């Protein structure tokens, strides 16, 4: 897609595969990496030939958090002025196409929070999730206290955020923050297969669907139901709805045109 220093952005058919690429520091998420991610996401969002994104790391680490060396000596005025953790850091959460996090190894602090910004979290059997910020004298700053709590509930989130302990893939799946667990060797192929399944369906309908699900996290039940209904109604303005339903009635596979 484009050459970067700290991430690899590749095209695999309709799938954009983003790989964090700072293996020596367990993919610590430095500001330059976040800027590259922001650029890559803008390119992918604007490219009609790409419909799903997979974000991954390596076998040892998805990402072990924000880069502590960068933050260690920051003052309040520095992090406040730069709005560290703000919209630029949350770009993945506002990404409009379906996003899959394929997590192996450590997903800690900002790494866990990046995974939580995705729509689906696929975990390798060696994945470890945690919000260890309290052990280094700070708290989650990239949505962890909010998205994690919405994903797994107050009591489990407090357990993780107040102790900094790590949980394995099974505990994370039981808690509801992991969609599926796969063997480590199958992680990226399975994530791509899942992405291809989604990409084989209608891209605009997938965008409506993820916006509807996200409404559940953003608003009250009655407002969320209203948002869902409007998005459902909007699906009837697409050719893909006509094609999908016609194909069902004619007992043939649908040929979605992504319109
Ligand atoms: N930042 C910078 N460097 C890191 C980080 C990190 N988060 N994590 C690991 N590294 C570096 C280590 O310093 C080490 O470097 P070196 O070889 O030069 O000494 C290298 O990666 C390998 O790490 P370890 O030797 O520690 O590897 P281990 O296998 O012994 O341990 C752990 C792995 C348990 C993952 C350990 O590295 C660790 O605890 N890392 C830090 C985890 C952490 O506290 N993460 C939270 C960071 S704070 C955060 O994410 C806040 C997010 C919100 C901020 C908003 C936006 C910026």
TrEMBL record:
Q: Does the keyword NAD apply?
A: no
Q: Which domain of life is it from?
A: Bacteria
List the InterPro entries hit by this protein, alphabetically.
Answer: ClpP/crotonase-like_dom_sf (IPR029045), Enoyl-CoA_hyd/isom_CS (IPR018376), Enoyl-CoA_hydra/iso (IPR001753), Enoyl-CoA_hydra_C (IPR014748)
Sorted alphabetically, the keyword list is: Fatty acid metabolism, Isomerase, Lipid metabolism, Lyase
Uppermost EC category: lyase
Q: Which GO terms describe its molecular function?
A: enoyl-CoA hydratase activity; isomerase activity
Q: Read off the CDD domains from this record.
A: crotonase-like
EC numbers listed for it are 4.2.1.17
Q: Name one GO biological process term.
A: fatty acid beta-oxidation
KW ATP-binding (keyword) present: no
Pfam families in the cross-refs:
ECH_1
Name the chemical reaction catalysed here. a 4-saturated-(3S)-3-hydroxyacyl-CoA = a (3E)-enoyl-CoA + H2O; a (3S)-3-hydroxyacyl-CoA = a (2E)-enoyl-CoA + H2O
What family is it from?
Belongs to the enoyl-CoA hydratase/isomerase family.
Say what the protein does: Could possibly oxidize fatty acids using specific components.
Q: PANTHER family in the record, alphabetically?
A: ENOYL-COA HYDRATASE, MITOCHONDRIAL, ENOYL-COA HYDRATASE-RELATED
What protein name applies here? enoyl-CoA hydratase
Species the sequence originates in = Beijerinckia indica subsp. indica (strain ATCC 9039 / DSM 1715 / NCIMB 8712)
